[in-house]
């Protein structure tokens, strides 16, 4: 069971970036999925989540209107589209999968927003 996050990088304020989280060893179909992030010196914070069939999403106020979570169960992949990136979005981003008390985490991908 593994989640592989990718797509991070160095971008400028206002740029966009799309993160991916691919699952291997299990099917994502029944799992709620989401993203957390952790900035240097700060606690990990929830970014957003999507339910198992993609019908419902929730976002942190800090990213609402800028970030979008989507999923492709056929590809066992969840995406985090990040638009209008700000300095304060700089963090390591982690994806997770949740089902009935079981949580699996990806390894994290670094997003740095810098001028």
Secondary structure elements and pairings:
Blueprint: E1 2-6, E2 9-11, E3 17-24, E4 32-38, E5 45-50, E6 57-59, E7 67-72, E8 77-82, E9 91-99, E10 102-105, E11 109-113
Parallel strand pairs: 2-11
Antiparallel strand pairs: 1-3, 3-8, 4-5, 4-9, 5-6, 7-8, 9-10, 9-11
What does this structure look like?
- This protein has 115 residues and is an all-beta fold.
- The protein is 0% helix and 54% strand.
- It is built from no helices and 11 strands.
- The strands form 2 sheets. Strands 2, 4, 5, 6, 9, 10 and 11 form a 7-stranded mixed β-sheet that branches.
- Strand 4 and strand 5 (45-50) form a beta hairpin.
- The protein is globular, with a radius of gyration of 13 Å.
- The mean pLDDT is 95.
Using only C-alpha atoms, the radius of gyration works out to: 13 Å
Distance between the termini: 38 Å
Strands, total number: 11
Rough outline: globular
**How many individual helices?**
0
Give the helix proportion (percent range): under 10%
Which quaternary structure do these chains form?
single chain
Strand content: over 45%
Structural class: mainly beta
The SSE string, one letter per element, is: EEEEEEEEEEE
Q: pLDDT under 50 segments (min length 5)?
A: none
Summarize the biggest pleated sheet.
7 strands, mixed
The whole-number mean of residue pLDDT values reads 95
